[in-house]
Write the structure tokens for this entry.
Amino acid sequence: MIEIQVYRYNSERDRIPYMQSLQVPEHFRKRMVLDVLEYLHEEDPTLVYRRSCREGVCGSDGMNINGKNRLACITPVSEALGTAGTLVIRPLPGMPVIRDLVVDQSLFFRQYARIEPWLVNHEPAPAIERLQSPEERARLDGLYECILCGCCTSQCPSWWWNPEKYIGPAGLLQAWRFIVDSRDQARTERLGGLEDPFSLFRCRSIGNCTWVCPKGLNPMGAIGMIRLELLKEGS
């Protein structure tokens, strides 16, 4: 049997959170963490977590698994366990827990909205799509693939310390995505909105964001590029 520790908290019933000890059959070692949760949920329907696509696309089942933020649906149990003897499943850190493994991501999405994640273009809409060269389109690679799971921002100590002021890695990755988009006409305004001491510059280059991204993206690299652009604007 595989030993499991699952974070449990129900504000209507529990005074404080606690870790529940459970077990699943050994054959789950070859399956995904989400399969473990599904099995446990069948045994105890009160266990609460988010899930949807189970293909690593929707980002809804982000959680902390053996100390690292991951998507439960694409994380093999064997990988998460490593040399550890117990699979420990907790909610994403740094966000208020609603119940069990479900966190309140309201602030995360408010920070995302701050970067205005849409194209700004004041020219009359063309009869067809706004075209880009292959080179212009290639600049968006490694940026547009973000699924807003919150894993990077939730694992960022700078965001834990300043969640109301620091936009966080996910939002800043998307800020860079629109800054470099050839179809967008708000580059100056976007950069100007990040010049204060907190929105961008609270980043301490810890690197947790890039370490945990389930899509293999590099938020820390994007943050560095924004800093360089601001330095060029100020020179």
